[in-house]
Amino acid sequence: MTAPGTRDPLMTHDIVAATAIGVGAAVRSLSRLGATRNGLILVDRNVHAQHPSLSSRARHVIVFDPRHESQPEILERAHAEIRRQIGRGGEDTSASVVDGIVGIGGGSVMDAAKLLRLLLLSAASFRSACHAAESFGVSIVPEGWTRGAPKLALIPTTLGTGSEASAVACLHGEGPAPARRLVTGRVMRADTVVLDPGLTRSLPDRTVREGAAEILLRILGAYIGSPERDVPDRAAEELAARVAALAETGVRRGFDDRIREALAVASAETHTGWALVGRDPFAAKHWYLANELSSAAQLGKVPVTLGLLPEIWRRIVDGDSRLGDASRLRRLWRIVSQALSLTEDPACGAEEWVSDWGLAPPLVSRDAIARAARGCFEVWGGERPALRGLGEADVLSIYVVAFGETRMRCPLSTVRKEVN
Question: Which of 164, 204, 239, 264 is the most core-located residue (most Cβ within 10 A)?
Answer without folding.
Answer: 164
